[in-house]
Design a protein that fits this description.
alpha+beta; Heat Shock Protein 90; 5 strands
């Protein structure tokens, strides 16, 4: 099975890159509630890899071994979008810009209490992952095609297309709400048999 590409968001937290040995866990961010089905995540890129790892573990434990990496990487993309574009309002990323650096810089200058809500429903027959930010949303019906000739050389703007394409390969849907601040990913073994 083809695996989705890794996202450019750094795997190491700024604390680790700065040599700080404090280890952050999802439990730290969620105050011990990481095993619950609803997470209220802070607008902080450090939480992304932790949330992705927790989802992947839950999926594997529920018997979704073949789909776990694809669904986890889709969560990574959804969280990046929710934090950067939704809660922080970062617009189009330019060719020479790094989204991780933009988020870090924006948070230095503009603290926010906005959260990203993640709702997980995982069983051996069905998976549903909802990611909702507190931003203004976006018009998901009019996303410029990253494969259009004028966009081929751009280094950003492919996340949603990649997420949807890889999810479709495993029979998973990815649908946005009307406002464009929530994405629901659903995979049902009963529908794919």
């Amino acid at each position: 099975m083809e695996q989705p590409p890794k996202n450019p968001i750094q795997q190491d937290s700024p604390e680790k890159r700065a040599g700080d040995s404090r280890e952050r866990t999802l439990a730290n961010y969620l105050h011990g509630k990481e095993k619950e089905s609803v997470w209220e995540l802070p607008t902080n890129i450090d939480v992304i890899s932790l949330a992705v790892d927790e989802l992947e573990g839950r999926l594997q434990a529920a018997g979704w071994r073949d789909e776990a990496i694809t669904l986890s990487e889709a969560l990574r993309e959804a969280l990046i979008n929710a934090i950067a574009h939704g809660n922080l309002g970062i617009g189009e990323i330019q060719e020479n810009e790094d989204i991780s650096t933009l988020v870090t810089e924006k948070l230095k200058n503009q603290r926010t209490n906005k959260k990203v809500t993640v709702i997980l429903e995982i069983s051996s027959s069905k998976v549903k992952v909802v990611v909702r930010d507190e931003g203004n949303g976006f018009d998901w019906r009019h996303i410029p095609s990253p494969i259009a000739e004028e966009n081929l050389l751009k280094t950003h703007g492919r996340g949603i297309l990649i997420m949807r394409e890889f999810l479709a390969k495993i029979g998973c849907t990815a649908d946005f709400n009307e406002k464009g601040n929530e994405v629901t990913m659903e995979l049902d073994r009963g529908k794919n048999s």
